[in-house]
Amino acid sequence: MILRILLGVAALAGLALAEEKVDLEARRQLVETMRDQLASREARLEQVTGDLREQGESIDERIGRIVDSLAEIKDSESSKTRISRLKQEVAEGLMKQISFYQSERRKLVERVKKDAGASIDGIAGDVARIDAMVEKRADQIVKLVDSIPGAKDIGKYESDGYYGGWGWGWENSRISEEWRQNRRDKVQSEKSRREARKALEGAIEDLERRRASIRSKLSNESLSSAEREIQAYELEHVEGLLAARRRQLVEVTTPSPEPGQAASKDEADEMTRLFEEARRNLSADFADAVRLYHQIVTERDHLHRLRESLAAREAWLEANDPDWQGGGHGDHGE
Prior knowledge:
Strand content: 5-15%
Helix content: over 70%
Distance between the termini: 61 Å
Shape: elongated
Number of helices: 6
Radius of gyration: 33 Å
Number of strands: 4
């Protein structure tokens, strides 16, 4: 009886050892599988990031060409206000892009605050790129507004001929087309500059409120070190934006040299047609770029969590598996 009990205990012990051995082998295999999955997803992320970079550079280059070409021309007596209106339309489109960038930036900052598993390095890079793009678009808006000619000192009337006879005569006069165009330029320039000033003054007021709020948060001694670091970065960012918006406010308020080339009516109509075509293409490409960006953000978070899980399992094997040799793989960086 006692012998049978001892034999049973030995069998159970052997089974336990076998199960432990199987368990360790399964854990090793899982780590190898996770490493393969990590390498595959990293390659995919690199590919999508390259696609987004290429798409973004193409969009940015095309927008730059549109802004530069418009900034070099002005309306003529035949084009009336076509070029000025086109400049305003492009500036409004750039403002919409800025609003989108700012919305995405706020989401990123909130994620850093709330999601401990978020990829901090990746988000910090995104925020820096968004900040640079917002400033570029803001400078392009100022460039367009600045290129709309203001009023010049031009006589209202011009001679329309001299009439007379039998010892009397008079000079007929009419309102000159140059004066009419100058008045149109004045109206368009004042409207554009007024809207730009209003937008910039509103932005400055908002930034000053944000600065005061951040300073108040930083004065709180119970603030965590992570939150303090985020708020300090935001304060530096807001200070930089304030300086930039004040500089831009001066630029749109101060008269600037007008473009030297005047577009005819036909040239203005052709530019409008080309712009509408470019806008449709840019809109589709921008939507595609946004899709790629959101895909990258999601994939980057998956990779961050996968790396953390893999590192934890490797550490467990290192501490509990005497046969574990690391599997022959290197480190997994962010």
